[in-house]
């Protein structure tokens, strides 16, 4: 099989307790050491190139296997170096916590009708907690809105052991590692596409996608086209409330709904309000559940 099982070692000098479950974890967190929600273990193969990502993704028979393999990926050296550097240096507010410091797998329902697609994990959010949109202000916004819509079990998301569940919704990131300056390179995006494309194939019931931001919109269209989906030409343009209908290879329609990203810049400046976010989620959920 492609990939190796090396490169799992944590690099942090001091093992620290998880804020909820305790224990002692190095930073980054080695797989199979008890971190809540960790799908990988010490035997999970590690991709170190785009070719190995392609082989491991194609061979994944289910979401759990795909999530495990993607969560130990080391195919992009710049992203590996950055995510692990952040995990070791930390933010002062979280200096007493271990950092996940690995790619962040998708989160939510295994048979969703609605997908939520963003950009990449935040350096001190998902890269710290090991769960998408968890532990940062962007997550505070999106999970509170999903809870208001009846699609999340609770309004807050603080760590991977807080009991949060999504109903009919799954969150995916086009890039699974926290990138420097929140800006992945094209080659990094294209390599991570391979995980995304396989995941889309394993989610046949999805009928709508809420896309947060222009990067996620463009990236999702490219991944859909590469997966054999029918994508309108010229490509649909991103905008808040924009809607486009794609078709899977089997003919099933999937509706994309655009939404400004739940970034601090957008929410603090009023470019994205709670009412706007609620409306976009309602629009996407209506498309997802349309007969």
Architecture blueprint of SSEs:
Layout: E1 16-18, E2 22-25, H1 50-59, H2 63-70, H3 77-89, E3 107-108, E4 114-117, H4 126-129, H5 137-148, E5 169-172, H6 186-201, E6 208-212, H7 214-226, E7 243-247, E8 253-259, H8 264-269, H9 274-288
Parallel strand pairs: 4-5, 4-6, 6-8
Antiparallel strand pairs: 1-2, 3-5, 7-8
Strand order of the largest sheet: 3-5-4-6-8-7
Largest β-sheet summary: 6 strands, mixed
Tell me which CATH architecture applies here.
3-Layer(aba) Sandwich
Residue ranges: pLDDT <50 for 5 or more in a row?
none
* Gap from first CA to last CA: 41 Å
CATH fold label: Uracil-DNA Glycosylase, subunit E
Cα-atom Rg, whole angstroms? Answer: 18 Å
Helix content: 25-40%
What's the name of the CATH homologous superfamily?
Uracil-DNA glycosylase-like domain
Taken in chain order, the helices and strands follow as EEHHHEEHHEHEHEEHH
């Amino acid at each position: 099989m492609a990939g190796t099982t090396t490169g799992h070692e944590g690099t942090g000098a001091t093992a620290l307790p998880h804020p909820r479950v305790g224990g002692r974890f190095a930073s980054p967190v080695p797989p199979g050491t008890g971190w809540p929600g960790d799908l990988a273990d010490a035997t999970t193969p590690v991709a170190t190139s785009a070719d190995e990502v392609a082989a491991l993704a194609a061979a994944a028979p289910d979401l759990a296997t795909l999530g495990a393999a993607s969560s130990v990926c080391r195919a992009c050296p710049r992203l590996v170096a950055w995510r692990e550097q952040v995990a070791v240096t930390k933010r002062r507010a979280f200096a007493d916590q271990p950092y996940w410091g690995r790619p962040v797998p998708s989160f939510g329902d295994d048979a969703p009708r609605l997908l939520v697609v963003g950009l990449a994990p935040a350096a001190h959010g998902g890269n710290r907690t090991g769960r998408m949109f968890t532990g940062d202000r962007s997550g505070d916004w999106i999970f509170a809105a999903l809870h208001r819509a009846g699609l999340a079990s609770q309004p807050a998301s603080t760590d991977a052991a807080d009991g949060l569940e999504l109903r009919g919704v799954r969150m995916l990131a086009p890039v699974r590692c926290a990138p420097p300056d929140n800006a992945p390179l094209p080659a990094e995006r294209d390599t991570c596409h391979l995980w995304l494309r396989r995941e889309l194939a394993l989610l046949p019931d999805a009928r709508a996608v809420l896309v947060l931001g222009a990067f996620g919109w463009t990236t999702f269209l490219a991944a859909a086209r590469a997966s054999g989906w029918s994508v309108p030409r010229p490509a649909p343009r991103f905008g808040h409330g924009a809607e486009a209908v794609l078709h899977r290879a089997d003919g099933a329609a999937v509706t994309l709904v655009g939404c400004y990203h739940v970034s601090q810049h957008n929410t603090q400046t009023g470019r994205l309000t709670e009412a706007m976010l609620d409306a976009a989620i309602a629009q996407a959920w209506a498309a997802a559940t349309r007969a």
